[in-house]
Amino acid sequence: MPIRRLKSDRFSSSSPRNLATVFTLPTVKAMVDCFERYLNLTIADGNASVDTIKTYRSRTSGFLSWCREREFYPALVTKENIKEYRKHLVDGGKTSPTIRLSLISIKHFYTACLAQKLVKDNPVIGVKAPREKREVASTIKYLTEEELQQVFDSVAPTYKIRGDKTKQVQVLRDRILLGCMALQGCRSVEMYRASLGDISQSYGQHYLKLDGKNSIRTVLLRPDLAEEIVQYRACRNATKEKLDSASPLVLSLSNRRYGQRLSRSGIGHVVDGYLEKCNLKHTDLERSLSPHSLRHTAGTLSLQSGSSLREVQDLLGHNDPKTTAIYTHVLNSQENNPATKIDITF
Known about the structure:
By secondary structure, the protein is mostly helical. The chain is built from twelve helices and seven strands.
């Protein structure tokens, strides 16, 4: 039986939890406040990204809303209740990675409360997300070299914006955005966070420092892409924009937010716009491309072109080579299909 909200603020050894001592139930607000401090001071050693904190807060809020609807008191939630919530997410059509992230967030919530002695244990420990039924390699969607060339060739002014110089800024911005993502394997969040000060030059080589999901890495830029970034900065100077090291690499060109950092949704909108323009967004029922498909494109085409697994791992910033090996599986399944070796006319 699930434990319901108690009217009393206290319960004793005769309560359902069979505690040896009297325990004062914390308010939900006290637990949430405790979690907020934990998010800012403990997650990622106090240096968690805004996106990480926002995600943990959102997933935990969803769980607390579920508890409120069922009159479950968060401080009295049991492992069985957590399993019920997991089933609720499964029935709601949530994917295994989504459920895993929710459980991780709730686990952190109870870890924070346990550290402050607001709860007696962490009910999430031992509760795992369901296994992913799909083969991971089947989720890799990417552009062929011909399709990627088509996307680059399609870049042209698309906004009703002021002046030829600004149109030139937009063309270069979009080419740099697409190039960094599809050739250098940059994530959308890395492009969102990148600033002009993150670009450096040494012995004729240009580098871009990227603030990723869990770490900061530096990538060596292709010479042609680096040259376009130099032109891009010059064009922005010509528009009388005041540039410094904190100026965004990918800027917004809308009238309302002109010159500010292009949002992550804005980056997705730009990429999707070019995929739609080239009729590549939805090519069939099994293949639907997204901005993240550009990163998959960088990994897949690099391996196709003869780069080693280690080189691609460094390019994409993977900590675990097994993650990079997914792209090898994609290529092997295409090139080494046993069915094609059967000597029969079909």
